[in-house]
Each structure stands twice: as structure tokens, then as C-alpha cells.
Amino acid sequence: MFFQEDKQSIIDNAFNAYTDLIGGKPFTIAWAPGRIEVLGNHTDYNAGTALSAAIDLGLCFCMAPSSQSYIRAIAIDLERTAYLNTFDDLKVPGAKWATYIKGVFYHLQRHTKQTIDEVNCTFSSSIPIGGGLSSSAALEVAAATAVTSLLSLNVEPKEIAKICQKAEHQFIGTNCGLLDQITSIFGRENGLIHTDFQTLEISDVTLPPDIDFLVVNPHVEHNLADSPYNERRECCEHATKQLNELLPYPVNTLSDVSLEDFEQVKHKIDKYAAQRATHIIGEIDRVAKGVQAAKLGDMEAFGELLYQSHQSSIDNFENSCPELDHVVNAARNAGALGARLSGGGFGGVVIVMMYADRMQTVMNDMEEELFHLDIHPDLIRTTPSAGAHIIL
Ligand code: GLA
């Protein structure tokens, strides 16, 4: 069962906790959403493309200056308080959530040369933690949005995304791409964003208004820092090097290789490298086809690409798991347009796309089929929503 708290009650939680536990009122309140990855799996760090959306689950971050020479952060939902500084690059012992905040402030401070040390903050979130909806990117982006506003730091939004990514690499140890942060910042209401990670160009992709998304969380543990995420990234880099030696043009990233060229040479590279590259190059191709299908309003074709993407996760990237596969099968059996794992994989969530008027039937049928497999997921209806913004 998933109780979806609305945005206003999350804001109230963060605000009231600020006045109750810290005293006074926050000077700045920022909101950053979670995200769904609709197509383009693991393409971001391969300089490929992806289609994604910010969602209506998000995180509210309240902040004001303090007279103490440290940062006090309160995670309301976890009932935890941490005291941080930004003069060293050590993790906050026993508090991963606080390490995210510290990492972001540390890198913002280095980037802007402005000291970030005397602030109080509280935050609350409606995004399930570790559920594959980028709860951590929302925390990073919300913290960065709040502090840049409070201290009038002049940092471009794309730079904020990169700073958050740096924090994740250095402080957490996940060598993630930029998908989560870019989507949390640039997501837009009622539509997808298309990001080219080579150029960081972002454009809107409109879907017909009768399309709805469902997030299905079968509760498989998901922690990218402990998963084979970094190993997959290294394998893609290895494939890139091998392809560079085989193809007559420079291959700096897998996005430099067309599907046709790859087909000609893939048997000449290592087995795993070939499998992982098949997924990435295939995903980039599916994103391009998805953009075309969306332009034509052909949602059956678009949905089929989602199913293909999931199959490729199973066959090539090996980042799915039986629970996610059952969910995708149940979605297909229930007549959904498309379904696939969304995000890093190795657990996390499945997104299901369907016509809005089919939502209830699809949900009922899926729940019934999964119940017989002893899978009791949370089903969360979700709508593409606006990216991070200042509320106060
Ligand atoms: C995680 C990472 C992203 C991206 C996706 C997979 O969400 O944080 O950078 O690589 O996995 O597409």
C-alpha cells in the first residue's frame, strides 16, 4: 500500500518542522521532484539520449541563515538531525542522507568560492527512498536550489546538475550520469523531456493528453552504490575502446556508433562488452524512434519500444530481476501500451504507460496477476510535473 502525500502536505511538514524544531520561519523553500526514465537506459553516461519526466512526488527543503558556524540539517521523515561543515570532504558518519547535502554544499562552495556554513535546514519528501525514482537526486537538487536562492549564488541550472552529480560521485561513490539531476531540474508539466547528453541540449516532447503513467514498486531492494552500476559503466567504457580500434572513425562514446556499424563489428569485441553495448546503442535508437512515434501520436509504437527496452535489459544489460520482469509481463497481459524498468535497475521500479481510461482495469488486472505470484507492489499513478522551483 502506498499513501501518496500531496505536495502541500509535504511543504507543510517541512515548514512546520522548521518553526517547531529550529524556531522562526524559513527564508527559502525549494521543491525538487523525483523522476521517471521513460526510454534511454544507461545512455546518459554514454553521451546518448533519453526521454524522461519529473513526477508529482518530490522533496521540500526549507532553509534560513543561522548564527552558529555549522550547518544543521533535519530529515523530518527519518527523524534525524545532522550537523555538517563544508571545510572537509569527509562523509557524515552514519547519515548518508546528510552526506548528500554536504557533498552538494561542498561542491557549490568550491564552484562559487562563497562559503556555505551558517544555515539551518529541514526537509520532507514524498518519494520512496531507494525506489528508483531518484529520491537522492531530488534531495541534492532541492538543497542546491534552496541554498543558491538563499545566498544569491549565481549558478546556471545545468551547472547545478553537474555539481550534484559530482557530489554523488565523490561523496556517495555512484558514478551516475546526469539523467536524474537534469530531469529533476528541467522536467515540465504534462510532457517528457528529451536530453542529449553529448551537448546537454534539452527539448520538450509532448504526449497525447489521454496518456497516463503508473509506477509499480515491487519492493526489491535498490542501492546503486552497492549494485553493479559502476561495473556496467566500466564495461561500456571498455566496449567504447574496443570499437574505437575497429571502426574507421573516432569512437569516444557509444553514442558515436550507429546501430548498423555496430552490427558489422560486434562479434569482434568481448562478449560482455558486446552485450552491454547492444543495450546502449539499441536504447539510443529506441529513443530516436520514440521521439518520432510521439510526434506522430502513435502511442502503440511508443509503448512497444518500452517493452523492447525492458527485454534488452534482461538479455543484454542484465540489470533487471525476476520481480520487475513479472511486473512488466503483468502490464502486458493487462493490455498496457508499454512497460519497462525505469532507472538504474537491479531492483527499483517499473513504469507502465497506458490510455488514461484503462488505468483502473490495468491496475486491477496487474494486482491480481501479481498477487498469485506473491508480489504485492505499490501502484503509484503519476503525472509528468514541473521541475525544481522556489516556493518562497
Ligand atoms: C540511475 C543513474 C542515472 C542513469 C540511470 C540509468 O538513475 O543515477 O544517471 O544512469 O540510472 O539510465
Structure report:
The protein is an alpha+beta fold and 392 residues long. The protein has 2 domains: 7-203 and 386-390, Ribosomal Protein S5, domain 2, CATH 3.30.230; 211-382, Alpha-Beta Plaits (2-Layer Sandwich), CATH 3.30.70. It is 43% helix and 21% strand. The protein has helices at 7-22, 96-112, 135-150, 157-172, 179-186, 229-246, 259-265, 271-296, 299-317, 322-333, 359-372; strands at residues 28-39, 49-65, 71-75, 80-84, 119-125, 191-196, 201-206, 211-217, 338-342, 349-355, 378-382, 389-390. Strands 1, 2, 3, 4, 5, 6, 7 and 12 form an 8-stranded mixed β-sheet that branches. The relative contact order is 0.17. The chain binds alpha-D-galactopyranose. The site of alpha-D-galactopyranose has 11 residues, from helix 5.
Attached small molecules: alpha-D-galactopyranose
Got a strand count?
A: 12
**Average pLDDT for all residues:** 96
Question: How many H/I helices?
Answer: 11
* Low-pLDDT residue spans: none
